[in-house]
Amino acid sequence: MTAMTHPRIVIVGGGTGGISVAARLRRKLKQADITVIEPSDKHYYQPIWTLVGAGVFPKEVSERPEASVIPKGVQWLRDAVASFDPDRNELTTVGGRHVGYDFLVVAAGIQLNWDKIPGLRETLGRNGVGSNYSFGTVDETWKAIREFRGGTALFTMPNTPVKCGGAPQKIMYLAEDYFRRTGVRDQAKIIFASGAGNLFAVPKYRATLEKVVARKNIETRFKTNLVEVRGDAHEAVLENAATGERESVHFDLLHATPPMSAPDFIRQSPLANPDGWVEADRSSLRHPRFANIFALGDAAGLPTSKTGAAIRAQAPVLVENLACAVQGKSLSATYKGYTSCPLVTGYGSLVLAEFDYELNPQETFPFDQSKERHSMYLLKKYLLPAMYWNGMLKGYL
Hints:
- By secondary structure, this protein is of the alpha/beta class.
- It is 26% helix and 25% strand.
- It has helices at residues 16-28, 49-53, 120-123, 138-147, 167-181, 203-215, 264-267, 308-326, 374-392; strands spanning 8-12, 33-37, 42-44, 63-65, 75-77, 81-85, 90-93, 98-100, 103-106, 111-112, 129-130, 151-157, 188-194, 219-222, 224-230, 235-240, 246-250, 253-255, 260-261, 293-295, 339-346, 349-355.
- A five-stranded parallel β-sheet has the order 5-2-1-9-20, with helices on one face. A five-stranded parallel β-sheet has the order 11-18-12-13-14, covered by helices on one side. Strands 6-7-8 form a three-stranded antiparallel β-sheet, with no helix packed on it.
- The mean pLDDT is 97.
């Protein structure tokens, strides 16, 4: 590939990955023509929705205008992508535009498939049902927790990849803490129904979470998926993945995590791997079949957890390697699978899990991060949001 002086770079997605990359590229490749394609006029700091759902913050603290996070000098095309034609270096938008590029970055996020669970969408916000996984439903979680007076509180996690895999249990720990503080814990039965085989993939942190579950007297059901919600009857249908056996469970509170997938326009495109995600080399983040295409974040087919922290580690690698490609050089940067999950275990306590592709801990601080700490809770509550808005989205972190 020969060097280019004024490359046209198109970034699909104006979320965490897309904006972080755009900001870094703007500084590194000053002569590049950079366009971000993003249909939404709002940008959200989604990690804080765990605390919003537990009543710590109003949801409005997570929202800013998309225009306010677009880096100076970067064009914003407010539209959505309909299809890709990588052989022609072109994509088509829902609005009918044909957009050409020299280099393409796909950071389109993940798709929430609410309708994969019959009855869920219809009952969200009613009958004690909420979910932290969207701006429109996160305050319904807090309403359900606040109004809970006893009975069964059911928290679910699907067997699909999800953004922030620890979030479905974090809200459960906060809810249990709230029930205890408000005097209804003795009247509550708490169930965690997860499509996964255990609480957490990394043994060091899983050991701590198993102690948390035991201390809080939470019933766990693994390899178990929510497959239907009968809201008016307050019934959730759970299916055992091994046997196919179904059971109807009465609930008084339900926090549901919807199944997730790559966005449809990616799954149906030439860019997708067999599982529907954007195919990407796990080290360089470059597409193995289309050398001018890179991917990061939730939409990328990388064998690591889908978190904002992963994007923070991926963005500088992608930008460095894209710059090498622009200059006709061999790619020089390597992503080793770093990701992080701040596991809130109650109001004021948190386990900061950090690890790589091989599930080896990659801890930042000089102490055992598998222990619950108040300092790490304060990190999540105050420092990480400030780092996000003022550092990461500006390409400095």
